[in-house]
Automatic annotation (TrEMBL):
Residues 25-44 bind DNA. This is TetR family transcriptional regulator. Residues 2-62 form the HTH tetR-type domain. The keyword Repressor applies. It comes from the Bacteria. One of its GO terms (molecular function) is DNA-binding transcription factor activity. GO terms for biological process: negative regulation of DNA-templated transcription; response to antibiotic. PANTHER family: HTH-TYPE TRANSCRIPTIONAL REGULATOR RUTR, TRANSCRIPTIONAL REGULATORY PROTEIN. It comes from Umezawaea tangerina. Keywords: DNA-binding, Repressor, Transcription, Transcription regulation.
Length: 189
């Protein structure tokens, strides 16, 4: 097997899904790949850079969703963007923990700036657009973090529909943002 960044990240994500974030170590990863631990440092200078690459790869599906078009409704787009991000985080065990605290870089940063420009061009003041992106992102990570931390546990009570709770919270954020932006909220269907 050729050892490259993509192979290492792929195997690290498999390890994450099998054992959880706390079990991901360069020693464990090197053992699984059949290499010596120092060979990993040829591709990643430390565990933190490996975790950053894993976080980026974990949300790659979300990162390839189409960017908003000028004709898109900003509310519909922001809701769907949050849903897509949630699906990406839920796709991996401890996906929210892995992603928490990361900062967009490179292509991800360029995409984030495009999204910000879209919201501003839709009529949101730049500061409100920034806070909207930050708030929906943090809400999504926090919701998934709680969901993944309590997986299989009924700490929130029996019958809690986490998707419905996420949607309700997202609707509250959107209603507040629409009101603040001077737009009437879209009617619920």
């Amino acid at each position: 097997m050729k050892l490259d960044r993509e192979t290492i990240v792929s195997e690290a994500l498999t390890l994450l899904d099998e054992l959880g974030l706390d079990a991901v170590s360069t020693r464990q990863l090197a053992k699984r790949l059949g290499v010596e631990q120092p060979s990993l440092y040829w591709h990643f200078r430390n565990k933190a850079s490996l975790l950053d690459a894993m976080a980026e790869a974990a949300v790659a599906g979300h990162a390839t969703t189409p960017l908003p078009a000028p004709s898109d409704d900003w509310r519909d787009w922001l809701v769907e963007n949050s849903r897509s991000f949630r699906r990406a985080l839920l796709a991996h065990r401890d996906g929210a923990r892995l992603h928490a605290g990361t900062t967009p870089q490179g292509v991800d940063l360029s995409r984030a700036l495009h999204k910000l420009e879209f919201l501003v061009s839709a009529g949101l003041p730049e500061q409100d657009a920034r806070i909207a992106m930050l708030t929906t992102s943090h809400f999504t990570v926090g919701s998934v973090l709680e969901e993944q931390a309590e997986a299989g546990d009924d700490a929130e009570g029996p019958g809690l529909d986490r998707t419905a709770a996420f949607e309700a919270g997202l609707a509250l954020i959107m209603d507040g943002l629409a009101q603040r932006a001077g737009h009437l909220p879209k009617r619920r269907r």
